[in-house]
Amino acid sequence: MATSTIQFAPNLTQAQENDEHEMLHRWMRLEAEELTSISHIKRFTEYYEADPEFRNNIVISPAQTVAKYNLKIPLEEIRWLWDKEFAKSQQAQGIPFPPSIQRFIDYENAHNQWVDRWRSQMPDSDPRFQSWRDRQMARLDGEISKLMNAQIAHSPVCFELSKGCSVGCWFCGISAPRFSDIFTYTPENAQLWREVLEVVKEIGGPAAGAGFCYWATDPLDNPDYENFVKDFHAILGAIPQTTTAQPMKDPARLRSFLKFSDSKGFAYHRFSILSLKILENVFAEFSPEELIRVGLVLQNKESIMNKAVAGRSLEKQQKAGEFDDNKPVQSTIACVTGFLFNMVERSVKLISPCKADDRWPNGYRVYDRGTFETASDLRVLLERMMTQQMPLGIRSDALLRFRRDLKHENLDDGFKVSTRFLTLKFRHHPLMKELGEIILKGDKTAKEIVAQFEQLGVPTAEINYSLNLMFNRGILDDEPQQG
């Protein structure tokens, strides 16, 4: 469990994250040998994760297995890829990774950096939006763990271009409804789409380009998806990351889309693989080199990847009596901390990931919602949401209490709040313990708390600072009453 101590006095400085992002031009211009090496190591890792027969055979007969699966990887490097203990022992002796494997690691790190390029910093965005997102991310460190939270992109926006999903995965972490309608690329819809993107750009700045165009939908259900993507790129400056569970529905269409995406710069897409048969078909259709910038989400039953316990997966475990709330598992697949649009309904929700439970079974909170008909309507709606839901500091009339997942304990010189993942200590002031007890009761507003401490001689600025510090660290309850 991570532990952090928070001081009462306002001289605490917050660490500033480095907002420099590595240039990715080098990875878009791979030499033929590099392309083959990286893509074949990538395919090895996908086979290993998905297929128990491959995992067994690569240990017993590596040469025959590499030949059978047409993997162009030097035999002497194979053990580095599957035997973690061997790799650790080699590194402990000062033996570095083979150059090809190190190059693969560097490539994956560059990809991860690209995915997270706007995770923490949103230049030119509305400061209310940035501050609200920061608080949500701080909350999740304690709610689902820093490790799990670090794997969430926290994209500021996403768009559904259809209503429902045609795939119907039994484990869907956000319980996608059945496919029923499409937002077609008519002249009227295209104009509205472009205007919506402009409004989103005003609020999110360049980081809006980290959004994507699916949620409880599959992008390939919309026959006009590519047209919407072209507008997205023209206005927001990026190709939206695309995930489909239908990679074999129309391979020619998908191959054309990937080529178009590559022509616009670095982008990374994903195929959700639902069975070993689909994996075999995908690998037969697409070469390792073609899928170098396509991640495979290996959801087949034989995969060593664990499914998130949220949505339909959570419902199934609860019905079977198998759900264990104390088991450390991924408890959300939600990756948006911002605005969720459905263009068919012309609706928008303000959402943030959370641990899936009875109150939020799909693993995300809904802070606000509304509908719009025009871009002007949308601008008014989003401004209203930010005004009501995204204060830059604690409102004086806000009733203050700790989050429901936090355990409060008194210390000699303060108090601490904790989950099984994170502990935060607030101490080094004679009245800090009393402040914690007041917030624990949850029956006083910020204004009332300030007034009470003023009577004890604590300056208004000091108590306001301390309350806002707790506010920004995400420990004060802001859970919506209704979704």
UniProtKB/TrEMBL annotation:
SUPFAM superfamilies, per the entry: Radical SAM enzymes
Alphabetical list of InterPro entries matching this protein: rSAM, rSAM_PoyD, rSAM_sf
Stated name of the protein: RSAM peptide epimerase
Spans traversing the lipid bilayer: none
Organism encoding this protein: Oscillatoria sp. PCC 7930
Listed GO MF terms: catalytic activity; iron-sulfur cluster binding
